[in-house]
Amino acid sequence: MGLRPFPGVGHLLPAAPPQLRRAAPHPQRVPGVRPAPCGGRGGGAGADAPVTAMEGLPVDMRAFHNEVEGHLLAAAAHAEARASAERFAARLDWLTEAQRQEVERLFAAEHLELARASWRRTVRRGEELRDEYGAVYRGLRTRLLAGLLLGFALVAAVNFVVLVSG
User: Which of 73, 101, 112, 151 is most buried per CB count within 10 Å?
Assistant: First the structure.
């Protein structure tokens, strides 16, 4: 959906100069009209070419967001592990430089493994809770449906008795 000239609009004043340097990819080729965002309708080359590698690809934004969040979380965990390892090794002033680097490397690796184990426990507990709450939700939904059906049956029976006795 783009802008197009309207008949009888703007014919009294000269049109403003185009604000965009490249021609619009719209079939009418109206200069100065901003093109539709990339990735919407088909790809192409030239003026229609994607600006970044991500444009033009079908992207599930939730998955993309989760992936970026995972990378940021992993980077933060690595930085935290390195900082903790450096603080720990700094207290061991009798170590040589090579020994200090080895202690830092091992400490950081252990710290990351503990973080991964914590994340795995969190994921497992989240799955358990999802299953548990899903079962409770299904039970509640079943009870609600049964109550509604019973209520409708009761209303229908009362209406039938009223119609028959009337």
Answer: 112
